[in-house]
Design brief:
It is elongated and about 55 Å long. The chain has about 230 residues and is mainly alpha-helical. It folds into 2 domains: about 80 residues, Arc Repressor Mutant, subunit A; about 140 residues, Up-down Bundle (Four Helix Bundle (Hemerythrin (Met), subunit A)). Strand 2 and strand 3 form a beta hairpin. Helix content is about 70%, strand content about 5%.
Amino acid sequence: MTSGTDKRNAPKVRTRSNNNAASFRVMELVKQDILSGGVKPGQRLVETEIAQRLNISRPAVREGLRLLSAEGIVQIEHNRGARVRLYTRADMLALHQIREVIEGLAAMLAASRAALTDLGHRLIEINREIEQALDREDKEAYLELNTRFHDTILEMSGNQLLAPHIAEVRMAFGRLQTSDLRLSDLRKSLKEHQEITETIISGLPQAAESAMRRHIRSSRTFILSLPHVINE
């Protein structure tokens, strides 16, 4: 038999669970908006708009934003609400150092496991698709394919713990706008992709790590030149 106390407590447990689920939906929505370019660094996040999009309460939105603040993704200012974090130049340099190490490690592991996976052909195909996208000057397609290239290497590495760390770093950069991209830079990036691919498929761990780290360093100078991703 269930006691009266148990009956009174049950709805509260369910409500708390529902609120938690709603807050996590807020987190996923904001993260996706950042990665897709739907919101920009420094942009204000309006609680009522998020609540309407997800059909949830404003307290649940507020809690989700608080959790994002704890992760360093958004900043909450008194009487001004939340906005996407705008990183300083020092922050971006530090994050790029982290990305260089992690993606370099992923490339090294991918090369050491090249004989154990059939994903090498996927890298070749992605590079081919990138070349075709650049030939038709489709920068949007380049952005999608570039992410797929790096994700494939993470998958090839066999280390499932690397992906969440890379996702956190990517969140800081948001999504580059096509107007930011120069075709000459993208063609240079493709050549670097091809070098990385060759070292991985050839099973050369140290060479793969070096090639990837050079690639990440090359992108650092470009990203740091963009005024809208830097808070001086």
